[in-house]
Amino acid sequence: MEAPAPVEISFEDGITESLLMTALGQEVYRAEESSMLGVVTYKDVFEARRLSDGSLRFLRIVTPSGLKTKSWILPIDTIESKGFRAILDSVMELGGCWEQAFGGVLLVHLPPEAADAVEARINEFRQS
Protein backbone atom coordinates (compact mmCIF):
# COMPACT_ATOMS: atom_id res chain seq x y z
CA MET A 1 0.00 0.00 0.00
CA GLU A 2 1.32 3.42 -0.97
CA ALA A 3 1.29 6.58 1.13
CA PRO A 4 -1.64 8.96 0.48
CA ALA A 5 -0.99 11.39 -2.36
CA PRO A 6 -3.01 14.01 -4.23
CA VAL A 7 -4.15 12.85 -7.66
CA GLU A 8 -6.30 14.47 -10.35
CA ILE A 9 -9.42 12.41 -10.89
CA SER A 10 -12.03 12.90 -13.58
CA PHE A 11 -15.66 11.95 -13.20
CA GLU A 12 -18.37 10.93 -15.66
CA ASP A 13 -19.39 14.51 -16.41
CA GLY A 14 -15.81 15.41 -17.37
CA ILE A 15 -15.17 17.55 -14.30
CA THR A 16 -11.84 16.94 -12.59
CA GLU A 17 -10.81 17.39 -8.99
CA SER A 18 -7.58 16.87 -7.06
CA LEU A 19 -8.14 14.44 -4.18
CA LEU A 20 -5.89 12.90 -1.57
CA MET A 21 -6.06 9.13 -1.96
CA THR A 22 -4.24 5.92 -1.15
CA ALA A 23 -3.61 3.28 -3.81
CA LEU A 24 -4.71 -0.08 -2.41
CA GLY A 25 -4.07 -2.23 -5.44
CA GLN A 26 -4.42 -2.26 -9.20
CA GLU A 27 -7.09 0.33 -10.03
CA VAL A 28 -8.39 0.39 -6.42
CA TYR A 29 -8.04 3.49 -4.24
CA ARG A 30 -9.26 4.82 -0.89
CA ALA A 31 -10.36 8.45 -0.61
CA GLU A 32 -8.53 10.24 2.20
CA GLU A 33 -10.74 13.30 1.72
CA SER A 34 -14.15 13.95 0.22
CA SER A 35 -14.94 15.09 -3.26
CA MET A 36 -16.65 18.46 -3.22
CA LEU A 37 -18.63 17.14 -6.18
CA GLY A 38 -20.21 14.57 -3.87
CA VAL A 39 -19.04 11.53 -5.83
CA VAL A 40 -16.72 9.98 -3.24
CA THR A 41 -16.48 10.68 0.46
CA TYR A 42 -13.79 10.15 3.07
CA LYS A 43 -12.69 6.48 3.28
CA ASP A 44 -14.77 5.25 0.32
CA VAL A 45 -12.92 2.59 -1.66
CA PHE A 46 -13.32 3.09 -5.38
CA GLU A 47 -12.14 1.80 -8.72
CA ALA A 48 -10.42 4.13 -11.18
CA ARG A 49 -8.39 3.70 -14.33
CA ARG A 50 -5.00 5.44 -14.59
CA LEU A 51 -4.79 7.60 -17.73
CA SER A 52 -1.68 8.31 -19.79
CA ASP A 53 -1.25 11.75 -18.17
CA GLY A 54 -1.11 10.18 -14.69
CA SER A 55 -4.60 11.26 -13.67
CA LEU A 56 -7.39 8.84 -12.82
CA ARG A 57 -10.78 8.22 -14.41
CA PHE A 58 -13.36 7.35 -11.73
CA LEU A 59 -15.24 4.12 -12.50
CA ARG A 60 -17.30 3.16 -9.43
CA ILE A 61 -17.47 2.93 -5.67
CA VAL A 62 -16.32 -0.54 -4.60
CA THR A 63 -16.99 -0.21 -0.86
CA PRO A 64 -18.65 2.80 0.75
CA SER A 65 -16.87 4.04 3.88
CA GLY A 66 -19.65 2.98 6.22
CA LEU A 67 -19.43 6.38 7.87
CA LYS A 68 -22.40 8.71 7.98
CA THR A 69 -21.56 12.10 6.45
CA LYS A 70 -23.28 15.35 7.38
CA SER A 71 -22.48 18.83 6.10
CA TRP A 72 -23.05 22.41 7.17
CA ILE A 73 -22.17 25.86 5.92
CA LEU A 74 -20.96 27.79 8.96
CA PRO A 75 -19.18 31.05 9.67
CA ILE A 76 -15.43 30.46 9.84
CA ASP A 77 -15.27 32.01 13.32
CA THR A 78 -17.77 29.40 14.53
CA ILE A 79 -15.68 26.52 13.17
CA GLU A 80 -12.52 27.99 14.69
CA SER A 81 -14.05 28.73 18.09
CA LYS A 82 -12.80 26.85 21.15
CA GLY A 83 -16.24 25.43 21.96
CA PHE A 84 -16.81 24.17 18.44
CA ARG A 85 -13.31 22.68 18.25
CA ALA A 86 -14.22 20.58 21.30
CA ILE A 87 -17.06 19.07 19.26
CA LEU A 88 -14.70 18.40 16.35
CA ASP A 89 -12.18 16.80 18.72
CA SER A 90 -14.96 14.47 19.90
CA VAL A 91 -15.60 13.50 16.27
CA MET A 92 -12.02 12.24 16.06
CA GLU A 93 -12.27 10.46 19.41
CA LEU A 94 -15.38 8.63 18.17
CA GLY A 95 -13.47 7.24 15.18
CA GLY A 96 -14.72 9.81 12.70
CA CYS A 97 -13.15 12.66 10.81
CA TRP A 98 -14.07 16.18 9.76
CA GLU A 99 -13.12 18.33 6.80
CA GLN A 100 -13.34 22.05 6.18
CA ALA A 101 -13.52 23.35 2.61
CA PHE A 102 -13.96 26.76 1.03
CA GLY A 103 -13.68 28.35 4.46
CA GLY A 104 -17.10 27.58 5.89
CA VAL A 105 -18.15 24.22 4.45
CA LEU A 106 -17.90 21.57 7.17
CA LEU A 107 -18.15 17.85 6.45
CA VAL A 108 -18.34 15.47 9.39
CA HIS A 109 -17.91 11.70 8.92
CA LEU A 110 -18.96 9.49 11.83
CA PRO A 111 -19.74 5.90 12.71
CA PRO A 112 -23.54 5.59 12.30
CA GLU A 113 -24.12 4.95 16.01
CA ALA A 114 -22.56 8.32 16.93
CA ALA A 115 -23.82 10.47 14.05
CA ASP A 116 -27.15 11.62 15.47
CA ALA A 117 -25.68 12.72 18.81
CA VAL A 118 -22.89 14.73 17.19
CA GLU A 119 -25.28 16.25 14.68
CA ALA A 120 -27.49 17.38 17.58
CA ARG A 121 -24.46 18.91 19.36
CA ILE A 122 -23.46 20.84 16.24
CA ASN A 123 -26.99 22.08 15.62
CA GLU A 124 -27.34 23.09 19.27
CA PHE A 125 -24.03 24.97 19.11
CA ARG A 126 -25.17 26.78 15.95
CA GLN A 127 -28.33 27.95 17.66
CA SER A 128 -26.61 29.24 20.80
How would you characterize the overall build of this protein?
The chain is of the alpha+beta class. 25% of the residues lie in helices and 40% in strands. It is built from 3 helices and 8 strands; from the N terminus they run ββββββααββα. The strands form 2 sheets. Strands 1-2-3-4-5 form a 5-stranded mixed β-barrel. A 3-stranded antiparallel sheet has the order 6-8-7. Helix 2 runs antiparallel to helix 3. The mean pLDDT is 95.
Helix content: 25-40%
How far the N terminus sits from the C terminus, by CA atoms, comes to 45 Å
Which parts are unreliable, with pLDDT below 50 for 5 consecutive residues or more? none
Strand content: 35-45%
Largest sheet: 5 strands, mixed, barrel
User: How large is the radius of gyration?
Assistant: 16 Å
Give the beta-strand count.
8
| SSE string, helices as H and strands as E | EEEEEEHHEEH
User: Helix tally?
Assistant: 3
Q: Provide mean pLDDT, rounded.
A: 95
**Looking at the structure, what is the overall shape?**
elongated
Side-by-side strand order of the widest sheet: 1-2-3-4-5
Q: Which structural class fits the helix and strand makeup?
A: alpha+beta
Oligomer: single chain
